[in-house]
Amino acid sequence: MVNIVEFVQESSLSPSQWIGLTSEGKGVYIRYRWNTLTVRVGNQPVKGDIIYKKEHSQNNLTTNELIQILSSVENINISKENHISLANISKELTEIRNEM
Q1: Looking at the predicted structure, is the pLDDT value of residue 14 above 80?
Q2: Is the dihedral of CA 82, 25, 87, 38 positive or negative?
Q3: Global pTM?
Q4: Is residue 25 predicted with pLDDT exceeding 90?
Q5: 63 CB-contact burial (10 Å; exposed 0-12 / middle 13-18 / buried 19+)
Q6: Are strands 2-11 and 49-55 parallel, antiparallel or unpaired?
Q7: Cα 3 off chain centre by
Q8: Which of 10, 28, 47, 69 has its CA 20 to 30 A from that of 83?
Q9: What percent of the chain has pLDDT over 90?
């Protein structure tokens, strides 16, 4: 189970992108492009292991829609309470963001 404890939307344009942090301190990279939602986890999240990849029919994907989709995935724990603004990201997530 991947427990996402903090995540922030980096871009709402195409592609929509979010970055996050797991409870184990690994980075999370979430990208929605060309109707495909991909979630990667790792020390270098952009190149990390794909833990979810699936096509969806939305043109754009909002954070609320992302949470709704990923909340139904068996091996991912994500919650609206863990969505934060760029101004409030933790030191750990800032480091992950700077390495991307």
Answers
A1: no
A2: negative
A3: 0.93
A4: yes
A5: middle
A6: unpaired
A7: 11
A8: 47
A9: 77
Q: Bridge partners of 39?
A: 30, 52
How do residues 42-86 score in pLDDT, each as one tens digit?
Answer: 999 999 999 999 999 877 889 999 999 999 999 999 999 999 998
Question: Which tokens hold the place of 44?
Answer: 């270098």
Q: 54: Cβ–Cβ under 8 A, 6 or more apart, which residues?
A: 36, 37
Which residue's entry shows tokens 């995540």?
7
For residue 97, which phi and psi values (nearest 5 degrees)? -60, -40
Sequence-distant (≥ 6) Cβ neighbours of residue 75 within 8 angstroms: 1, 2, 51, 52
